[in-house]
Specification:
Layout: H1 4-19, H2 30-49, H3 62-83
Helix pairs in contact: 1-2, 2-3
Length: 99
């Protein structure tokens, strides 16, 4: 089931934070960063595959949905830059719009 492994990662990360008495006051823990990267990667891959709906396993999890959407947005930006004449003018620098 798409996204199940990431939902399990989220549960494990939350459990580790409880075990180690870690609060989110100091930003994301290493455990949560791993979950964020996985969710963004899935969003990126889903965008590449043309999937527009988030995984059912991400429902009711605002962080997973936000990270998944961020991955999709990154894919969209990469595609846009790949097709931009200003970004592909041979200088290696992005155009002013994408820079």
């Amino acid at each position: 089931m798409r996204g199940l492994d990431i939902r399990v990662m989220l549960a494990k990360a939350r459990t580790m934070e409880v075990i180690h008495c870690v609060t989110s006051d100091h930003g994301l823990t290493d455990w949560m960063i791993d979950v964020e990267v996985a969710a963004e990667s899935l969003g990126h891959m889903d965008a590449h595959r043309g999937l527009s709906e988030p995984p059912v396993m991400f429902q009711n999890e605002p962080d997973l949905l936000r990270w998944w959407r961020c991955g999709r947005e990154t894919y969209r930006e990469m595609r846009e830059m790949a097709e931009c004449h200003g970004c592909n003018n041979g200088t290696g620098d992005p155009c002013p719009h994408h820079g």
